[in-house]
Amino acid sequence: MLDYALTLAVVTLIYVLLSLALDLQYGFTGMINFGVAGFFGAGAYTSVLLTMRAGWPAPLSFAGAMVVCGAIAWPLGKIALRLRDDYLAIVTLGFSEIIRLVLVQEQWLTNGVQGIPGVPRLWPTWSTAHSELFLLVMLCVANVAMVVFLRHLTHSPYGRLIQAIRDDEVAVKALGKNPARFKTQVLVIGGAITGLAGAFFAHYMTYIVPDQFVPLITFYVWMAVIMGGVARLSGSVAGAALLVIFLEGSRFLRGVLPWVSDDAMASVQIGAVGLVLILFMRWRPEGLFGRRREGLR
Fold this sequence. Notes:
Elements: H1 2-27, H2 36-52, H3 58-80, H4 85-105, H5 107-110, E1 116-117, H6 128-154, H7 157-167, H8 169-174, H9 179-205, E2 207-208, H10 215-228, H11 233-250, H12 253-256, H13 262-283
Antiparallel strand pairs: 1-2
């Protein structure tokens, strides 16, 4: 039971990081990013390769994952953000699939569909239980640090500017600002945070494979942000926790629907999660922490 609770806590905190990154991009800046899974996978594989191939210690490999994902985000922003926002959604969605296909095809680097086993834990000399507990503590530290950083960022003049871009980009241009430049910066920051989440995920699972970074992950993160409340850091935290509760709770549908086959149960679980999202959009469209009949802040 303790191991199960520890697993849920780790998964929840990883989703919190992903939700914070997406909320910064979409909630505070108005950018539609459908490539969360791509940045997530790039961060995971970067950290693993730097640790296992280059011999870097975990802290440096985590930083490397953030740098690589931020660097990947920069050209995406430069290309797409000079056009309409719809192009960013298309580009990021295509980017996510390109990353997954690269992970599958470049077997000399990623071992293809067989994945990379034996990823070292953050403290490999400790027992598994102690190492997982240490990773949970580091995840807590990372989440607290990220919330403090994003709160300071979004309440600063820079934060007010990106929210102005979200609300009225034409007016910001009229004031002599370049929205594309600030949007690119936010995309880079969000990509770096997503890469950090991927690094934590890889070193917790100790085995990564391309199928772990499918577009469904992006859907889950969007669901967490919407349920928690857009442009609310507290909403990102609560939404991620609620998402994991729903995902784990849907597993118990097997006892309620014993006649459903194992193959069909996966679709039933996704349908149940989707139904919850629809109910949220119908009865609480502003999310748990959103404000009724008010614009985003």
